[in-house]
Write a structure and sequence with these properties.
Layout: H1 2-5, H2 15-24, H3 35-41, H4 51-61, E1 64-70, H5 78-87, E2 92-98, H6 100-113, E3 120-123, H7 126-134, E4 161-173, H8 174-177, E5 197-200, H9 206-219, H10 221-228, E6 233-235, H11 240-246, E7 252-257, E8 268-271, E9 279-287, H12 294-305, H13 307-310, H14 342-348, H15 350-364
Parallel strand pairs: 1-2, 1-3, 5-6, 5-7
Antiparallel strand pairs: 3-9, 4-7, 4-8, 4-9
Helix pairs in contact: 2-15, 4-12, 9-10
Protein name: ABC transporter substrate-binding protein
Pfam families: SBP_bac_6
Signal peptide: 1-28
């Protein structure tokens, strides 16, 4: 079955062919800027104050900070809050988690109504940072260590910076699959896995959508149709597939983050296979120019990309070029199958994104269920 499906391509007949040529073709080739051009734009000094100096200045400013962060559950950033509080105990951090696609329009509405709440935004919706930079909404600022961050994960002028290197793929429970583990996404359509797969809806989360679009490009629409026949348990929130696998309810989870650090003790394996797509990106973070607590915001960015924080990333990957990943891994941007250059272009093509969403809805059905972070309204964090 796998050898047969590997010969299938996305450019088949009907609507799938048009979709493959339109929404996907523009994202296939990696983008790169010449070193000379990058050097011309990488002007301006980095922050020279230490974290402790910034901390003292932030307390004098008022000692408060509000961050809007993209995520799946209200408690997903509790680890970040706890670590920040342990390092800076007297600073009052409010960190609100919601889907990035709701946070971004929430911020737009707050701009429009003069009711801005957050000082810092940290989202998966990469296209918003380009738009907000063009609108003059973002503070151009280079935290200490800016020069060490991978060029593709930062704006040359410092309008935004990637603070976390994240990858989505599929994962599986090692005891649930036994000795016959799926080696690549091609194996996920084997009938033996019917009823044993969980996935986040690709047409509800743009990162999962990009992952599924890469699958469709690589394996063809017949593969997508076979997956749709696998009785997949779809749910909202990219945390849901991992929760299902770690909880022992499903053997395989698609469209979720994970760690590829080799481990013999973990009950779950995050799959990356040479020659098969997964997807990665740098989660963009920026200080809003209208931030009420700009010094505290600068402290947050400096702490986020500091070596002490980046060495403790949950998946072993850092946004910094001077922090080597654990043995057995390469830097995220060194995997051509991670398509780190393709995801920003994909996100920028909003018409293409909508075509992908509606097409996957035809295969997998409409998105169902309440948003997993809850309904937060217009001004959470006030």
């Amino acid at each position: 079955m796998s050898s047969f499906l590997s010969r299938r391509r996305v450019l088949t007949t009907g609507a799938g062919a048009a979709l493959g040529l339109g929404a996907v073709g523009a994202t296939a080739a990696p983008a790169s800027a010449s070193p000379a051009a990058a050097a011309r734009h990488n002007t301006g000094p980095e922050e020279t104050r230490t974290l402790d100096e910034l901390y003292r200045a932030a307390l004098k400013e008022g000692g408060k900070l509000v961050v809007y962060a993209g995520g799946d559950t209200p408690t997903q950033q509790d680890g970040t809050k706890a670590a920040f509080k342990a390092r800076f105990p007297d600073l009052d951090l409010t960190l609100i988690v919601d889907y990035s696609k709701y946070h971004d329009v929430r911020v737009d509405n707050q701009f429009a109504t003069g009711t801005l709440v957050p000082d810092v935004v940290q989202f998966q919706t990469l296209q918003d940072f380009t738009r907000w930079k063009d609108q003059g909404r973002l503070l151009r600022y280079k935290p200490a260590g800016f020069s060490k961050v991978y060029d593709g994960f930062k704006d040359p002028q410092g309008a935004w910076i990637g603070t976390g290197a994240i990858a989505f793929s599929f994962l599986y429970g090692t005891s649930a699959v036994g000795s016959d583990a799926p080696r690549s996404p091609l194996d996920l359509v084997d009938p033996k896995w019917k009823g044993k797969i969980a996935s986040s809806y690709p047409h509800d989360d743009d990162a999962v959508l990009y992952l599924y679009s890469l699958y469709a490009q690589k394996y063809g629409w017949e593969w997508v149709a076979k997956l749709a026949a696998q009785d997949v348990q779809f749910a909202r929130g990219s945390n849901s597939p991992g929760d299902a696998v770690f909880g022992g309810r499903k053997a395989i989870g698609i469209g979720t983050a994970g760690s590829a650090v080799p481990s013999s003790s973990s009950p779950v394996k995050f799959s990356i296979a040479d020659g098969h797509p997964f997807m990665g990106w740098g989660q963009r973070t920026a200080i809003l120019k209208q931030a009420k607590n700009s010094t505290a915001a600068k402290l947050f960015l400096n702490w986020q990309i500091s070596a002490e924080h980046q060495r403790n990333s949950f998946n072993g990957w850092s946004v910094r070029t001077d922090i080597a990943p654990p043995a057995g891994l390469k830097q995220l941007w060194e995997y051509p199958d991670a398509h780190v250059d393709g995801f920003p272009r994909f996100m920028a093509d909003r018409a293409g994104v909508e075509r992908w969403k509606q097409t996957f809805a035809l295969y997998f059905g409409e998105v169902k269920g309440d948003p997993t972070p809850g309904w937060l309204g217009l001004h959470p964090g006030v």
